[in-house]
Structures are given as C-alpha cells and as structure tokens.
C-alpha cells in the first residue's frame, strides 16, 4: 500500500510539480469497506486543503477534534451506496479518510455552514493552538508537528 501511495504521489507531481506543491500539497488516503463482504478499496489523492466539519451541538471544540471528525468512519447507504468491486452490486459501505502525506503547511477550512433546515452558520468556538499543533496520531506515514 505504501508503494501504491508513492506511485500515486509521483503521478500527481508529473502534472503539478512546483515549489507551491512542495509546501502546500499533501496526500489523502480514502478507504471504502463493503459491510457485506469486507472488501476494501483504497485510493490516494493530492489535496491542498482539508475542509473539516465542526461537531454538532457543541459550543466549543479543538481543531484536533474537528480533524478527527473529518477522519472518522462514515456510513454510505441509500442513494450513496457505491458499487462493491468484489460483490459487483451496490452495497452499504463505510468510508474513512486519513492523511497519508502531510504538507509542510497544512491549510484547514472550517465548514461553518449547515444545510440542515436551510443554510445556517455554526458559531462553534474552535480552539487552535498558535504553537505546537500536534497531529502525529492523525497521519498514517509522516510525523507531523506545526510550530
């Protein structure tokens, strides 16, 4: 899997190899798992920023908690069911994101608007440490610490 991630990264750099990519681009790992047969499908994609959700019904949160929420397993069911490559049928699956390669500078976008009951702004306070933001437990490969 590490080899597939490296190959995917090198393919992305063929189209976007620049000083900006060296600083701001990271690699996201997306894993789909069929709940019927447990087959896992993994893809790797370049990212420039992460759009992270805010926890529901909380007055405050930390940026680490928001990132963990982004990376938590999500169930795909109903109209969202993907085709399982092994079952050859649309099946309920779980989807999980993780950071395969963290950029030198991580750009975060807080998803402050909710589509529930119209478009409303979420006023959740997000604690963001100015120094020593530790993301070591969130990345698959790289040790990540932002000062």
TrEMBL record:
Its EC number is 3.4.19.12. InterPro entries: Papain-like_cys_pep_sf, Peptidase_C19_UCH, Ub_carboxyl-term_hydrolase, USP. It catalyses: Thiol-dependent hydrolysis of ester, thioester, amide, peptide and isopeptide bonds formed by the C-terminal Gly of ubiquitin (a 76-residue protein attached to proteins as an intracellular targeting signal). Residues 1-147 form the USP domain. It is an enzyme of class 3 (hydrolase). GO terms for molecular function: cysteine-type deubiquitinase activity. GO terms for biological process: protein deubiquitination. This is ubiquitinyl hydrolase 1. It comes from Rotaria magnacalcarata.
């Amino acid at each position: 899997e590490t080899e597939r991630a490296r190959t995917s990264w090198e393919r992305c750099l063929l189209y976007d190899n620049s000083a900006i990519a060296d600083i701001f681009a990271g690699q996201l790992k997306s894993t789909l798992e069929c709940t019927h047969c447990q087959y896992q499908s993994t893809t790797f994609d370049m990212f420039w920023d992460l759009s992270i959700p805010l926890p529901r019904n909380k007055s405050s949160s930390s940026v680490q908690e928001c990132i963990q929420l982004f990376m938590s397993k999500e169930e795909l069911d109903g109209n969202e069911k993907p085709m399982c490559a092994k079952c050859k049928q649309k099946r309920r699956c779980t989807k999980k994101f993780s950071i395969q390669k963290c950029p030198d500078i991580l750009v975060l976008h807080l998803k402050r608007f909710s589509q529930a009951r119209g478009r409303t702004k979420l006023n959740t306070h997000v604690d963001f440490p100015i120094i020593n933001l530790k993301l070591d437990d969130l990345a698959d490969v790289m040790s990540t610490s932002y000062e």
